[in-house]
Amino acid sequence: MAAGTNPPGAATAQQWTGREARLLRHALRLSVRGFAAYLGVAARTVAKWESGGTSTVPRPDTQAILDTALARADAGARTRFEVLVTQAREAGRAPEPVPRYDYEAWTDDLDRTVACLGRQEFRLARTLLDRWLARFEPNSSDRQGMYLYGRSLRLLGEVRQDQGALRGPLSAEHVYRQALRVFTELESPRRVAQLELQLVVIDEMSGQLDSAAARYESLTADERLSAHDRTRARLWVGTALSKRGLHETATHHIVPAIREFEALEEPADWSIAHQKLALAHRGAGDLTAAGRAIDVALTNRVDDTPLQQVRLDTAHAHILLSDTATADSGLAILDRTARISTRYGLMHQLRSIDGIRRRFESR
């Protein structure tokens, strides 16, 4: 440290190690990414320093950068740094040690959460997630913990999405954005792209159909995503366009998605895509083609969870209501799907069912 760099009484570091670098970051109250930008170095460099602790000694030119960073910190940050360094040296270790978590148990709970989501057991899913989200203290140096934390946030977003809580402070969108920040900091491009895709789904479900269709279209060619996710994006372009009333155009996206799902050996999505195609044909006024497509979807049920059962049967009812000869059957199916939606707390689907019934009754 150059003489006269800091005012009297300010903290100094005779030699910077990963420990002191971490303490300075905490004193400045910055994230790993924010601290890296403050210093003008890569985030992974900062993470490497911190994971190495006192055994990592930055190069002399980096030592000078850290000297300068401390010198230009405000008085409050320098005081915090001095206290942290004193505590660390007296204890012989850095303060705020990374807590130890049972990552294997956490991973098992996330697998159980996925199973709960499939059965729409939202209360148990929330219990499994909350026990870790409430316990974990986000720490950029703990990559495994942060990865599981990000996965937990995403699954919590799926719970809220399935329950119809799309926007607001306790919504799917809010939690997805938290997860997005975690995976961005972890530099996990595929996870980031998957969350971007989920956020477009929220836009579509919220009625922002034009922007959702355009964003889906861009993600169909996004190499960060797997071929399966890119094909799902293609299907959802058609879904958004069909909701927008552009039914003929929608089929030009849905039919290729059906072929791609078949090539990828994804029978559940292949069946769902036929359901979407049936609705597009219905919207275009071709009830014969709609009937054929919905029959394929009904005959090839694969993932017959309560949520997918409601989605498929609601689509079937919507088609039956388009013909006076089958309208009574359609209303009976809608009543059944409404009861299932209420039982499992599928509020978005219940609102959709109510909308279909109101439009039918107002004709």
Automatic annotation (TrEMBL):
Entries under InterPro entries matching the protein: Cro/C1-type_HTH, Lambda_DNA-bd_dom_sf, TPR-like_helical_dom_sf
SUPFAM superfamilies: lambda repressor-like DNA-binding domains, TPR-like
Gene3D superfamilies for this protein: lambda repressor-like DNA-binding domains (1.10.260.40), Tetratricopeptide repeat domain (1.25.40.10)
Highest taxon, organism lineage: Bacteria
Protein's name according to its UniProt entry: HTH cro/C1-type domain-containing protein
